[in-house]
Structure formats: structure tokens, C-alpha cells
Amino acid sequence: MASWPRALPALLLGLLLAATPRAHSTEPGLVGRITDKGLEYAAKEGLLALQKELYKITLPDISGDAKVKHIGSVNYKFHSMEIRGCELHNSALKPLPGQGLSLTISDASIWARSDWKVRKRFLRLRGSFDLSVKGITISVNLLLGSEPSGRPMVTASSCNTKICDVDVDISGDLGWLLNLFHNQIESKFRSLLERKLCEMVQKSVASDLQPYLQTLPVTAEIDSFAGIDYSLTGAPRATAQILDVMVKGEIFNRNQRSTVALLAPVMTLPEEHNRMVYFAVSDYVFNTASLVYHEAGHLNFSITDDMVPPDSRIRLTTKSFRPFIPRIARLYPNMNLELQGTVVSPPLLTISPGNLSLTPLMEIEAFVLLPDARRESVFRLGAVTNVSAVLSFNTSRITGFLTPGKVQLELKESKFGVFNVELLEALINYYLLNNLYPKVNEKLGEGFPLPLLKQTELYDLVLQTHKDFLLLGANVQYTAD
Ligand SMILES: *[C@@H]1O[C@H](CO)[C@@H](O)[C@H](O)[C@H]1NC(C)=O
Ligand SMILES: *[C@@H]1O[C@H](CO)[C@@H](O)[C@H](O)[C@H]1NC(C)=O
Ligand SMILES: *[C@@H]1O[C@H](CO)[C@@H](O)[C@H](O)[C@H]1NC(C)=O
Ligand SMILES: *[C@@H]1O[C@H](CO)[C@@H](O)[C@H](O)[C@H]1NC(C)=O
To answer: What separation in Å is there between the alpha carbon of 261 and the centre of ligand 3?
Structure first.
């Protein structure tokens, strides 16, 4: 039996492995990248939001005793203070590797007004003063994480405020009195404001930014049948110049979700960037769609004689098959046939630079429709085709379009021995081109939504194809309400 100390390392290792979140070994299907340019824009928009919050700051009354030269101790109270104006000029949002983002607001100014009262025994004096606060710097770290539900999470930590300059302008006949303890007013306001500004930022992060980030859809509806899972696979990752948000990007059956047996590829995003945001969408996203639509039978098809165009050289009747399978017309005189097709396995999209393609393998089984409504299988064909895909996106959705190549048929099994299947190729090509592909393309044309925060719009769109993924780049516009 292993003794405790000897078994301990193995035990710890076991615990460690068990505790390692699965997310670590799971590649995201989609990565949202926010570049320095995007962060710059976010900082600018954030500043406007903070400016509104600043006006909402309520400053508590300040009271105390002060020693005044020649007069002695007086009791003072500053009350009914309000922020009259503010200017926030500069803000910077920078990645904070391993944590999230650091937000710095610098060179900000605030103007406030307050009433004052001074009491000294029977003496009662009152008036007001204006306060001008300049050179304010607020620095706060925004820690980014993900909730178990896969929603993004942000918390403010280590807030610091520095105020360079506080100016008090006292009006009223007896302003001289306050001038006597000017320094005290300044220092009281400085520390009060420094505390209040950080409280304001922290509150705004918790009550504005966090709910806003949570408008990122964790699942989005594609249609009545499928949805896409945009939950985060881990905390957003900050590196020197960018912030990456990794999401699952798995398309699933909304009525019956099952585990996906596909792995997302490792995506190596290019370093260079000149847009605010990028979305790297791997083949995994499209292939999970292929999986669920295939599994639900949306890629099964059936061809009957009424679908064959009138000018076709061949019809789905045993009579029409007589020239190349004489026995079929003899065994099943004057009967119709039905071709039942299925895509053998979910067709997987291959993305490579300049080329998107898939090679669906199909199987087509031919049945003779007997007079007593039974069906009898008579031969089976294998079908293969190269399909090229075009994917594109607009301000909100990724869409696709397939251009089919010619189908090549191969006889797999036959009750009547070998026959020339080429005659059936035209028929099947006609059906696929006019029925199956338009149906699939209609679906792909509706596309699926991109994971976007509320009130954001994309413009200046660019699209690149890389090995195993598409890279969509765009600038963002926040459309405030
Ligand atoms: C699609 O067709 C195949 C072959 O005929 C069949 O095995 C499968 O059950 C069908 N799928 C659905 C959902 O109908
Ligand atoms: C794209 O890929 C398919 C399948 O791999 C191939 O048949 C086709 O020739 C390629 N086209 C181009 C333009 O590279
Ligand atoms: C598909 O493309 C490959 C490579 O370009 C080619 O060898 C093959 O013959 C094509 N198949 C069909 C059915 O067109
Ligand atoms: C984006 O494409 C989808 C699907 O084609 C379409 O429904 C939508 O209206 C388009 N949006 C814009 C803003 O053009």
C-alpha cells in the first residue's frame, strides 16, 4: 500500500487535473477581438456615459470646527453642494494582461457650488462659494471574467483618484471669514471628491457597464429549429494591444440539444489590424450547423416522377428505364420509381485561403412503387460532388451561398446487374440544382447573427479567409438612445 507522503503528489496531480476547467482544453468556435482602436473608441463612449453619471453625484454636507486667527474657534457647515459642470477630456482603455483592462481618465475638471454657514456663539453667517476642481485623474482596473452561465463579467478594482488643483471662490460680504480657513476647505473637498469619484466609477461599472456587457447574447435564435451558443469559454484574454473574447460558437437543435462530436480548430489570428473589432469564425461553427440539420433529416430528399421536367430524356417510370435496364420494365411493368436521397454524413466545410468548399457524399436509393402501395428497393447509387461556398456578412449577420458542382454517380448495388448510371446524372443534377440547393441556399441566405452588444452597429466591413476560419473585421458605432 502506498504511504501517504508517497501518494500525495499523485493525489494532488489528480485533483489538479480534475479541477482544470474543461474550457481550457476546448478551443472556441468563435473569437471576438477588440483592438487598440476599438478600445480607444470604447473609452470615448464610456467617457460620455461617465460624464452623465458625474452630475448624479451627491456630495454630503461637511461640518466641523476651525480655528480662525484673531477670532478663535468657529463652527462651520458646507451644505447643498451640487455639481454644476464637468469636463472629461481624455480617457484611455488599455489591456491589462492577465486581468482585463485599465481605464484612465485624465485632465478632468469639475465645477461645484455649495452653501456655507458659520457659527460663533451668537454670530450666524451664511453665503455660498464656487469650487473649481482641475487636473483630476481617475484610474481604475476593470477585471474581466465569465460567469458560469457564460456571460461576461466585469468588476472594478483598485480605483485611484488624484486631484491637482482645488480652487475656492467665495462670494458674499463676509467671504473674508472663510478665506481664513481656505486651506481647510480645499483639503476637505479634495478628499471628499477623491472618494466620491471612485465610488461613482465603481457604481457605474456595477450598474451600467456590467448590465451592458450582459446584453451580449449567450444564445441567439437562428430559426425555429436551430440556435447558436455564444457563451464565453473562459475569461476574456488581454494581451499587450488587444482583448480577445472566446465564445463557443456552437449551433444546436433548439428542441433537443446533444453533445457535439466535433472539435473546434486552433485559430491563429493575424497580428496586424486596422479595424476596431474582428470576428474569427471557424469551420466548427458551420460544421455544427451541418451536423444538426443533417441529423434532423433536413438534407434528406426524395425525387418522384412529377418533379421531372417534361422535356427530360428520362422519366422516373420503369418504361423509361427499359433502354438501359430491360429487366426492370419486364418485372415491374408500367410502374413509377422514387429516388430517395440522403447525405451520408454531415458535409464538412473546408476553409482555406481563397477557397471554401465541401464535398458531400450522398446515397440515392431507387424504389419501385408497387400497385399495392409497397415500395421495393431496386438499386442504390453513390453520389459525390464538389460544392464551393461563398460566405459573407453584413452589419448583423453572416450569410452563405453554395454553388454546386456536377454530381458524379456510381452504382453501388443493383437487382439487375450493372447498368450505365450516366443517364441518371442529368436527372439528379437537375433536381439538386433546382430543389435541394435553392432550399439550402435560402436557409444560408438568412444566415446567423453575430454576437454583438446592444446598440452597436458595424461598418467598414472586411472579410478574409484563413486556414480553418473566416476573419471578419469592422469598425463599430455605438448608437445611443
Ligand atoms: C434520412 O434518410 C436516411 C436514409 O434513408 C434515414 O436513415 C434517416 O433516418 C433519415 N433521417 C430522417 C431524420 O428522416
Ligand atoms: C478548393 O478546394 C476544393 C476541395 O479541396 C478543390 O476541389 C478546388 O480545386 C479548390 N479551388 C481553388 C480555387 O483552390
Ligand atoms: C472534386 O475535386 C477534386 C479535386 O479538385 C477532383 O479530383 C474531383 O474529381 C472532383 N470531384 C467531382 C465530383 O467533381
Ligand atoms: C443582413 O443580412 C440579412 C440576411 O440576408 C438580412 O435579413 C438583413 O436585413 C441584412 N441587414 C442589413 C442591415 O442589411
So the answer is: 27
**pTM, full prediction:** 0.86
Does the beta carbon of 394 lie inside 6 Å of ligand 4?
yes
Q: Is there an atom of ligand 4 within 6 Å of 355 CB?
A: no
- Whether residue 152 contacts residue 236, with contact meaning beta carbons closer than 8 Å, is answered with yes
Nearest-angstrom CA–CA distance, 69 and 182? 12
Q: How far apart are CA 135 and CA 260, in angstroms?
A: 55
- Evaluate: CB of 405 within 6 angstroms of ligand 1: no
Ligand 2 binding site (Cβ under 6 Å of any ligand atom): 350, 355, 357, 386
Ligand 1 centroid – CA 261 distance (Å): 19
- For the chain, the domains span 4-16+37-210, 260-472
DSSP one-letter code for 284: H
Q: Does residue 405 have its Cβ closer than 6 Å to ligand 3?
A: yes
Buried b (16+ CB within 10 A) or exposed e, 173-198: eebebbebbeebbbebbbeebbebbb
Angle at 453 between CA 452 and CA 454, to 5 degrees: 120
CA 457, distance to chain mean position in Å, is 13
What residue's CA is closest to ligand 2, atom 5?
A: 357
Same fold, 4-16+37-210 and 260-472: no
* Paired residues of 78 in beta bridges: 62, 116
The string of pLDDT tens digits covering residues 217-251 is 999 999 999 999 999 999 999 998 999 999 999 99
* pLDDT value of residue 4: 43
User: What is d(CA 8, CA 6) in angstroms, rounded to the nearest whole number?
Assistant: 6
Length, in residues, of the chain: 481
Distance CA 110, CA 385 (A): 69
User: Atom 10 (ligand 1): residue with closest C-alpha?
Assistant: 297
For the domain covering 4-16+37-210, report its CATH number: 3.15.10.10
**Beta carbon of 342 within 6 Å of any ligand 1 atom:** yes
Domain 260-472 has CATH 3.15.20.10: yes
Question: Is the shortest distance between the CB of 223 and ligand 4 below 6 Å?
Answer: no
Give the 3-state secondary structure of 203-246: HHHHHHHHHHHCCCCCEEECCCCEEEECCECCCCEECCCCEEEE
pLDDT per position as a tens digit, 127-147: 888 999 999 999 999 999 999
Instruction: Report whether 314 contacts 285 (CB < 8 A).
Output: no
For residue 105, what pLDDT is reported?
94
Cell of 279: 470576428
Which residues make beta-bridge pairs with 136? 108, 163
Q: Which residues pair with 382 in a beta bridge?
A: 363, 410
